[in-house]
Amino acid sequence: MTEMLASARQQRILDALREREQVRVTSLAAELGVSEMTVRRDLNALAERGALVKVHGGATLDAAPTSSEPGFTHKLALESGEKQAIAQAAVKLIKPGMSIALNSGTTTYALASQCTGIKDLTVVTNSPRIAEIFYAAANPSQNIILTGGIRTVSDALVGPLALSALGQLHVDVLFLGVHGMTSEDGFTTPNMLEAQTNQAFIKAAARQIIVADHTKWGVTGLCQIVPLSQVDALITGPRLDEEAKVLLRQALDTLILA
Amino acid sequence: MTEMLASARQQRILDALREREQVRVTSLAAELGVSEMTVRRDLNALAERGALVKVHGGATLDAAPTSSEPGFTHKLALESGEKQAIAQAAVKLIKPGMSIALNSGTTTYALASQCTGIKDLTVVTNSPRIAEIFYAAANPSQNIILTGGIRTVSDALVGPLALSALGQLHVDVLFLGVHGMTSEDGFTTPNMLEAQTNQAFIKAAARQIIVADHTKWGVTGLCQIVPLSQVDALITGPRLDEEAKVLLRQALDTLILA
DNA sequence: TGCCTTCTGATAGAATTTGATCGGAATTGT
DNA sequence: ACAATTCCGATCAAATTCTATCAGAAGGCA
Question: If we measure between CA atoms, which residue out of A80, A124, A89, A129 comes closest to residue A211?
């Protein structure tokens, strides 16, 4: 067999995955005629783009083992102490009568859980799961607006409808969860459509506040949302690198350590 | 049989659980070809994520439907024989590759439950709950579009965003659930905003099919959606008044008795 | 050609998964 | 209540898999 380009090899991995649902490192190495190390590197690259999810021994298409398990995300978000602390710091900035926006993410999910009691709050979100929190709380003074669109695996509504909806709206404050942030690449996410939607969120808000735990620092997703300097504030945990703190304070007006 | 990935094994445990309601450690170990210890570990992992509940000797699905009442409506819609029959008749009209729209309602909810297996289906809906059915099924060939908006008590997204979204879309067939229908007042619903949204649904569809059980006949809601003659077909139950059947056949092209 | 970057393969050590065993806990039958 | 049985969790050893690191190969560029 002739040598294969790396991109072609990764494409074949995705093809095999779509066909078999599960692929194993050892069998891929044999089929593609490359070492297991190379297969692992391909899987890592694909996983970083969100094209697949790595599991022990191989990879799978959809991580969600249970279809639609609110309990899973629920616990994931709420059991993390840092996310809770960040949410707590964020909720202090929200006053009755305000309008806020929340994109899809576990940190914003944690924040939403703490907002159900706030009076006369208007919430714009592209996450059905976050909307569900408010629906369940049924606070009659609150106004919950769900953008339309198609749903990504990470529970975000994206696409033309989401963009069009966000283009019609304006909120006081946006709380934006991100997947990665670095000095060079700014705030990033692995999904291109989500990046586009998040940009629309930023345009729709008078103030932009990023919420991200310290593990997001140094991570670069596929797609940039905005450079660091384009947002007003960042709320993160205290365990952040000292060097990162310095860099962030240079780029941002406000850095809040929850 | 080749070795199975751990994640695949856990997926099969969940599949078995959905099918049988109860699974035993011993039988799972035999079926999956692994030791009981491994099964226990899998059950622990799944239980920690809330995907199932462990019981002595095995595991079961979470019995207590958490706080929110999707289970309630779920049963309400699916336990009604007539709604099921109507949905069954409706699903026969849907072919792979089509695009359909479903407004919010218990009958359309029942219909959605029967559509998750259809290939290359595009679904437009303003009901987060109906969207959730498709998300849970996670059929990769299907395209689920949720209109935006604010949610009414009957789980419909309405308002400017919903109208704007529907204005941008066109589908082959609309299945519309209604609250009332009479010869004089046409199809009606008690909520003005939903009526408006339903009108947008009708505009967005090449064919309009009403799905409504026989109890809807003679009921007039606050707000008219359209006169009887403005839609292409009605699917209802056979227990409808003879007089109503005559009137409906006059007004409509097609009357289907499920 | 020589240098540099990128990709690939090999190796070793760390981490994860699995199965077996055993003491203790829960369930069942009498 | 008591004993027998079944089931569960902890622990350890073996096997597999993962990550990190280094060295060689391939290709671009002056």
Answer: A89
A166-218 per-position pLDDT tens digit: 999 999 999 999 988 988 889 988 888 999 999 999 999 999 999 998 878 87
Query: In this complex, is the C-beta atom of B162 within 8 Å of any C-beta atom belonging to chain A?
Result: yes
What's the rounded mean pLDDT across residues B107-131?
Answer: 95
User: Which nucleotides in chain D lie less than 7 Å from some protein C-beta?
Assistant: 6-11, 16-21, 27
CA-based max dimension of chain A: 67
Q: What is the pLDDT of residues A101-140, one digit of tens each?
A: 999 998 999 899 889 989 999 999 999 999 999 998 889 9
| Closest C-alpha to A116, from B68, B129, B157 | B68
CA distances from A138 to A116, A119, A132, B68, B236 (A): 8, 12, 10, 11, 33
* Chain B nearest-CA residue for A61: B140
**Cβ neighbours of residue A17 under 8 Å, at least 6 residues apart?**
A23, A52, A59, A60, A61
pLDDT in tens, A27-65: 989 888 888 999 999 988 888 776 788 889 888 875 443
Q: Testing the interface with B: which of A61, A62, A67, A78 to mutate, by most B Cβ within 10 A?
A: A67
Could you say which architecture CATH assigns to the domain B70-257? 3-Layer(aba) Sandwich (3.40)
Nearest CA distance, A10 vs chain B (angstrom): 20
- The answer, for B63 touching chain A at a CB cutoff of 8 Å, is no
- Residue A61 tokens read as 């298409």
Tell me if A151 and B146 make a contact (CB, 8 A cut-off). yes
How far CA B66 is from CA of A69, A127, B72, in Å, comes to: 12, 20, 11
Tokens of A111: 């924040």
So what CATH class is A6-60?
mainly alpha
- Rounded Cα distance, A204 and A172, in Å: 9
The segment(s) of chain A belonging to CATH 1.10.10.10 are: 6-60
Residue tagged 């569809």 (tokens): B205
Residue B128 near chain A (CB below 8 Å) = yes
Q: In chain B, where does DSSP find H-type helix? A: 6-20, 25-32, 36-48, 70-78, 81-91, 106-113, 128-137, 160-167, 192-204, 242-251
**Among the partner residues B51, B140, B148, nearest to A161 by beta-carbon distance:** B148
Q: Closest-CA residue in chain B for A25?
A: B5
Exposure string for B192-228, b = 16+ CB within 10 A, e = fewer: ebbbbbbbbbbebbebbbbbbbbebbeebbebbbbeb
Delimit the CATH 3.40.50.1360 region(s) of chain A.
71-257
Beta-bridge mates of residue B186: B182
DSSP B105: S
Fold of A71-257: Rossmann fold (3.40.50)
Tell me the C-alpha distance between B195 and A156, whole Å.
Answer: 28
CA of A30 to C1' of C2 (A): 36
